[in-house]
Structure to design on (454 residues):
């Protein structure tokens, strides 16, 4: 499909002034995401939920792909396209503390997490929200939200108490425990398949200063390193949440750990961090007390699509010997160029599995990796086993026949199909792992029309 399929004269008047088309001065930045390049035929930039509804109604009349974008920082490639329409929610960027006593905040889906952190810091509050201030609220706060306060706070979605949603038929509805509770359940983990979330009410945590540490280890014995690192994470107090990235370097590997202690108790933080120094030779270390908002700083870089990437994800109960050996071998063999492991246990697993559409509540780690395209077949064979325990869709670019089943356990998927039938019976919203009511996975007869909120 190309932009010749688009009825530019039919763009709603309320959206026309801010719309961006090929050839416009702002097109180069509007067309791509932070990672993925794209060449959409039209980018619509609504400033309200009502305008989101108008944008969606117009898009439904066009025979072109559709993507919905909050921050455009996602690596899965679903918030841009070629020749289609992008609904960019960046104008819906309100950040408001609506009830300080309840720590209740209202966030527009297009706000960036760095800006959220700055506003909440004035009130002594914070929300665990990934590890990058440039990420958008909408994609992260509806898919899961693995953040550097996660073992202490839980997933971002675990503290969402309400949302405003634009449905496929253009209606704007409230979703919470009392209003459309089935929709409320679904948008916490699978919103991209159900509707466009335009704002969220979230309960924040009492967080001011945190201890932020960086370790760089020689991880040449990668398998042994991973097992020791994983075991130490599981032994650590919940206040500590470490994320680790591992890069191949010649015949060895370098591991960089970011760790956040959720509070200002420097003695307790030092005691929890010290064992990580014994895991392997330390090449660099530092730790400092800082406001959470200084760590999660605002980022407003241009999005020019660095490159298409192939990312895989897996949720793991433990970094045991077979798992560590398999991941290390993929790095050594060149199947993957680098990988990241996020600790997601602790408070994340306190939430019962049926509370949200994100149902993975036993795992302690989230693994993601950049797969080398020329080694894709080799990597896929190994990944089939790793991903059998669950995947995290924000880090998953694949749409093979197992992705849907790995993302949603059977009972969750059955319930999602029922919600889909109620709120999107025409299957307007579908991601790379579409949920079709009453049909087997991937019974999608119009794959060109896709939507998400990443």
């Amino acid at each position: 499909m190309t932009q010749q399929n688009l009825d530019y004269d039919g763009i709603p008047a309320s959206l026309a002034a801010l719309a961006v088309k090929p050839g416009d001065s702002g097109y180069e930045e509007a067309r791509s995401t932070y990672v993925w390049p794209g060449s959409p035929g039209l980018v619509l930039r609504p400033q309200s939920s009502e305008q989101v509804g108008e944008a969606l109604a117009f898009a439904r009349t066009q025979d072109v792909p559709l993507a919905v974008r909050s921050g455009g920082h996602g690596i899965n490639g679903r918030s841009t396209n070629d020749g289609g329409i992008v609904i960019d929610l960046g104008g819906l960027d309100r950040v408001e503390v609506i009830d300080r006593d309840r720590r209740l905040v209202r966030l527009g889906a297009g706000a960036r997490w760095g800006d959220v952190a700055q506003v909440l810091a004035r009130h002594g509050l914070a929300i665990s929200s990934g590890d990058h201030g440039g990420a958008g609220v909408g994609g992260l706060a509806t898919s899961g939200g693995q953040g550097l306060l996660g073992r202490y706070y839980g997933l971002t979605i675990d503290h969402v108490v309400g949302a405003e949603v634009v449905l496929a038929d253009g209606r704007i509805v409230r979703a919470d425990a009392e209003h459309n509770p089935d929709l409320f359940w679904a948008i916490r983990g699978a919103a991209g398949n159900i509707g466009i979330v335009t704002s969220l009410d979230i309960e924040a945590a009492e967080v001011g200063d945190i201890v932020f540490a960086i370790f760089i280890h020689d991880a040449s014995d990668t398998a042994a390193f991973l097992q020791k690192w994983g075991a130490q994470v599981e032994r650590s107090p919940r206040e500590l949440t470490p994320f680790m990235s591992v890069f191949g370097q010649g015949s060895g590997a370098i591991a960089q750990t970011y760790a956040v202690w959720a509070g200002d108790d420097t003695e307790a933080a030092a005691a929890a961090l010290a064992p990580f120094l014994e895991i392997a030779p330390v090449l660099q270390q530092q730790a400092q007390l800082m406001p959470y908002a200084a760590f999660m700083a605002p980022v407003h870089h241009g999005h020019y699509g660095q490159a298409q990437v192939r990312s895989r994800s897996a949720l793991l109960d433990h970094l045991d010997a077979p798992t560590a050996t398999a991941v290390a071998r993929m790095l050594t063999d060149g199947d993957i160029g680098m990988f990241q492991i996020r600790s997601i246990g602790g408070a994340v697993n306190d939430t019962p599995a049926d509370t949200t559409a994100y149902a993975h509540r036993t795992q302690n780690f989230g693994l993601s990796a950049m797969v080398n395209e020329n080694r894709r077949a080799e990597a896929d064979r190994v990944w089939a086993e790793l991903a059998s325990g669950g995947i995290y869709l924000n880090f998953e670019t694949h749409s093979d026949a197992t992705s849907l089943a790995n993302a949603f356990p059977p009972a969750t998927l059955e319930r999602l199909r029922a919600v889909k039938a109620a709120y999107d019976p025409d299957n307007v919203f579908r991601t790379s792992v579409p949920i079709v009511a009453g049909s087997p996975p991937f019974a999608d007869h119009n794959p060109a029309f896709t939507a998400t909120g990443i």
In short: The radius of gyration is 21 Å. Confidence is low (pLDDT under 50) at residues 439-454.
